[in-house]
UniProtKB/TrEMBL annotation:
It comes from the Bacteria. It comes from Pediococcus parvulus. Residues 682-698 form the DNA mismatch repair proteins mutS family domain. NCBIfam families: mutS1, PRK05399.1. This is DNA mismatch repair protein MutS. This protein is involved in the repair of mismatches in DNA. It is possible that it carries out the mismatch recognition step. This protein has a weak ATPase activity. Belongs to the DNA mismatch repair MutS family. Gene3D superfamilies: 1.10.1420.10, DNA repair protein MutS, domain I, MutS, connector domain, P-loop containing nucleotide triphosphate hydrolases.
């Protein structure tokens, strides 16, 4: 009976290895190929668009298989990682020609979305964070994260799952490592966010990594970092010498914003595209290095709350802003600095090549030039930084001496090490050159001896050196002069004993020199490994400098000014702008606005027509605060701000059109979070809260929320609303101030001034918006009529909650009012009847009319009205 395919020693080895990696694609190396088998092959062939074949297809149990050449593997790995899978790379651990029996194979690395380092998946200007979570009986969560490509390692303890999710989403982590203390429910909440959950129970961390956790005092933090380190060690199986000592941080050391708020403010990702374009980061990024780009993003994610730290950055920005030439020189020098952090990482992993080292050298050689620029600036401002910059000369010199200026990609095939660096290598090289010279001389002398002018000495991998003579000249070769070796169509190839002797000398020298070169290269790499921490410190300095110059450039380009940070609780911004909207629409078209909130004003109630700029105004303030606390200048003529501890941004569900998925429930949950967590030092933006439900409901909630914030929370709050009925609240709430967006009606058209003015708006402008949208005159006229009637009706019956409440405090209405009310009622019925009769007998029209008559306009948002008008227009036949 024939042996089953699955019983062959190779497939048994495969199964034994695969068993340890059930959740990963196993890339099994066979010769020059990586092969996938069974389900991996079926699924892999589909995702990677590879041809699905089978191993031993004539056997009774053909095994599904697909594969790719080893040199093309990176692309395939990238695709799988990007799609959220893991890939286990299984290599041949011995030379198949020398192996006795089965070639030994081992998984040398498990690549996962959170651990991938060398690929196109990692963008230069963003980090790829792997996070970890554990918990203990204290109910606190231990949280840790690292970027394997840069070696950054941080930890914290957080008091709620919400806080954890916030951190994970903020860091844009694609993978979180959990241990057995994290239950299914929690794991599910990550999976729902498309974050890979990997399981790892802590084991004893290797001695050489124990220093990483030395400075941690919290048991839970330490244990979480150890879990993370265990996972990295188990999956990476390579040197982690570049990991930096774990640093504990507190989210409350920074201006806190939950991920929902960041999302709404479009700090780093645009709501529409999820990309950088159109965000604050996009505007701010004038960094010249990858490290600077990443640090900028980190600063943006965590603005400061310490006055001194903020002012320290401000002073440096001011100095750079004042020195145009130095700043532009600095930029020119920074551009030539490569990604020191990731280079250091690759040194540790052992994956650097000659070109990387040249990049490292070039970067280090920039440091003295940067120092030179800094020395031209005020010593009091940049003196300390200047002193801290370490050009790591010793390493730059080492690379200078040892590595050729344009090395090949491969480090195992020679031509990497400079002449004169190693005496032995020079000897081998001499032998090679001499040998080659000898060959050249041989060619010349043999041509002379035989008279064959096109006689050639050549080389190929299979036959080595040979003498080649074309067929036409064969007759001229003296008998017995050469030994025949190979016949081609047009030529014969020959050898001689002397040629073969020289050949073996050359080949031996070549072989030895490439081996020696690789050895030397490895030694140089090990030497650089010893200074990884110096390189990382340098990288931080350079990144900081880069971000500061970026702030200065942005401040100059967009006319930002230095904000004053005040200890009291007042905001005074003159001529403030939304920097991104301004950039997009152009400085000329943007209307600047003031924000004035004295110590005794907590709430600005913002009313104004749709599309008039309410949301922009609110976001403008939040962005100004974020910029100020990052240490950047701000878009305004002048600005005085307190330091905020948190920002909450809630967009009313109905207004959250772009996200499209917001429900009223979410809106309320988010609002609740703000109300529960805000302090008097916080900033709250409530944009059209309450809009996602029926009018009275929504208005009642909006009012109650305003009152609650006013009476209990005391945070600085901007509240925009289309319920202009709420504006009377300033009569009862002393810390509330009305502002509105100015709009003028010109010949029946509405012109938005985008200008904030004190006091309430006088009405909503739904119909005007419908007009702007191009609806037919007839329809608009009709809507106007209906509205007028409803307004009259409303005024009389006094249905608005606010008015009802305020009125109830006033004296009873005089009797004639009641009489008038009844008059209105009758005239209204009359008019309706009249209208009804004059309409032509048109069933569609009838139906629309009935709907208009029955619709409760007051429970509709302007958007609803527009939608409804649109439907009616459709029904009536769009003319
Ligand atoms: P609202 O929230 O009142 O409906 P938005 O804040 O969404 O209005 O603004 C609507 C549009 O008006 C924006 O997309 C922008 O193009 C424009 N806009 C807003 N504020 C300004 C301003 N200060 N100057 C110029 N245009 C503005
Ligand atoms: Mg809005």
């Amino acid at each position: 009976m024939p042996q089953k395919t699955s019983d062959t020693p190779m497939m048994q080895q495969y199964m034994a290895i695969k068993k340890d990696y059930p959740d990963a694609f196993l890339f099994y190396r066979i010769g020059d190929f990586y092969e996938l088998f069974y389900d991996d092959a079926i699924k892999g062939a589909q995702i990677l668009e590879l041809t699905l074949t089978s191993r031993s297809h004539n056997a009774t149990d053909p095994i599904p298989m697909c594969g790719m050449p080893h040199h093309a593997v990176q692309n395939y790995v990238d695709i799988l990682i990007e799609k959220g899978y893991k890939v286990a790379i299984c290599e041949q651990m011995e030379d198949p020609r020398l192996a006795k029996g089965m070639v030994k194979r081992e998984v040398i690395q498990l690549i996962t979305p959170g651990t991938v380092t060398d690929s196109n998946v990692n963008e230069a200007k963003s980090n790829n964070y792997l996070t970890a979570l554990t918990t203990d009986d204290t109910k606190l969560f231990g949280f840790a994260y690292t970027d394997l490509s840069t070696g950054e390692l941080k930890t914290s303890h957080l008091d709620s799952l919400e806080a954890v999710i916030n951190e994970v989403v903020n860091l844009q982590s694609k993978e979180i490592v959990v241990d057995q203390s994290i239950d299914e429910r929690i794991q599910d909440s990550f999976k729902k966010l498309n974050i890979m959950v990997s399981h790892q129970n802590k084991i004893e961390v290797k001695a050489e990594l124990s220093y990483l956790t030395q400075s941690l005092t919290e048991k839970l933090e330490k244990s979480t970092v150890e879990t993370l380190l265990t996972y990295i060690t188990v999956t990476q199986k390579r040197s982690l010498a570049h990991l930096q000592k774990a640093v504990a941080y507190e989210p409350s050391y920074y201006l806190r914003m939950d991920h929902y708020s960041k999302y709404n403010l479009e700090l780093t990702r645009s709501i529409r595209s999820g990309k950088k374009q159109g965000t604050l980061l996009w505007l701010l990024d004038e960094t010249r290095t990858a490290m600077g780009g990443r640090l900028l993003k980190q600063w943006l994610d965590r603005p400061l709350i310490q006055k001194k730290q903020i002012e320290d950055r401000q002073i440096k920005v001011a100095e750079l802003l004042d020195h145009y030439f130095e700043r532009s020189n600095l930029q020119d020098e920074l551009v030539k600095v490569y990604d020191l952090e990731r280079l250091a990482g690759r040194v540790a992993f052992g994956s650097v090549n000659g070109r990387d080292l040249i990049q490292l050298k070039t970067s280090l050689r920039q440091i003295p030039k940067i120092q030179h620029v800094l020395s031209d600036l005020d010593d009091k401002v940049f003196g300390e930084m200047l002193a801290k910059l370490d050009p790591v000369d010793d390493i730059a010199d080492l690379i200078e001496r040892s590595i050729v200026d344009e090395p090949p990609i491969s480090v195992t095939e020679g031509n990497v090490i400079k002449d004169g660096y190693n005496a032995q290598l020079d000897k081998y090289r001499d032998a090679m050159t001499n040998g080659k010279k000898w060959m050249a001389e041989l060619e010349a002398s043999e041509r002379k001896a035989t008279g064959i002018r096109n006689l050639k000495v050549g080389y190929n991998k299979v036959f080595g050196y040979y003498i080649e003579i074309t067929k036409t000249n064969l007759g001229n070769v003296p008998e017995g002069r050469y030994e025949r070796k190979q016949t081609l169509t047009n030529a014969e190839r020959f050898i001689t004993p002397a040629l073969k002797e020289k050949e073996s000398l050359i080949l031996e020298a070549e072989d030895k020199s490439t081996t020696l070169e690789y050895e030397l290269f490895t030694k140089i790499r090990e030497q650089i490994k010893q200074v990884i921490d110096r390189l990382q410190k340098l990288a931080k300095q350079v990144a900081t400098l880069d971000v500061l110059q970026s702030f200065a450039v942005v401040s100059e380009n967009y006319h930002f000014i230095k904000p004053t940070l005040t200890k009291n609780h007042s905001i005074d911004i003159v001529g403030g702008r939304h920097p991104v909207v301004e950039k997009v629409m152009g400085r000329q078209s943007y209307v600047p606005n003031d924000v004035k909130m004295a110590d005794n004003v907590d709430i600005l109630l913002i009313t104004g027509p749709n599309m008039s700029g309410k949301s922009t105004y609110m976001r403008q303030l939040a962005l100004t605060v974020v910029l100020a606390q990052m240490g950047c200048f701000v878009p305004a003529e002048s600005a005085t701000l307190p330091i905020f501890d948190q920002i909450f941004t809630r967009i009313g569900a109905a207004d959250d059109l772009i996200a499209g998925q917001s429900t009223f429930m979410v809106e309320m949950q988010e609002a609740n979070r703000a109300i529960q967590n805000a302090t008097p030092q916080s900033l709250i933006l409530f944009d059209e809260i309450g809009r996602g439900t029926a009018t009275y409901d929504g208005m009642a909630l909006a009012q109650a929320i305003i009152e609650f914030v006013h009476n209990h929370v005391h945070a600085k709050t901007l509240f925009s609303t289309h319920y202009h009925e709420l504006t009377v609240l300033d009569q009862t709430l002393t810390k509330l101030k009305n502002v509105h967006v100015g709009a003028v009606e010109k010949d029946g058209d509405l012109v938005f001034l985008h200008k904030m003015e004190d006091g309430p708006a006088d009405k909503s402008y739904g119909i005007h918006v419908a007009k702007l949208a191009g609806m037919p005159e007839e329809l608009l006229g009709r809507a106007d009529k209906i509205l007028k009637r409803l307004e009259i009706k409303n005024k009389d019956t006094d249905q608005t909650l606010v008015n009802a409440e305020i009125k109830s405090k006033k004296v009873e209405e005089p009797a004639e009012d009641v009489q008038e009310k009844q008059n209105h009622k009758t005239s209204e019925v009359d008019e309706q009847l009249a209208l009804f009769q004059t309409e032509p007998a048109d069933p569609q029209g009838e139906e629309v009319l009935a709907q208009i008559r029955n619709s409760n306009l007051m429970s509709m948002t302007p958007m609803d009205v527009m939608n409804q008008l649109y439907k009616w227009q459709k029904k009536l036949g769009n003319k």
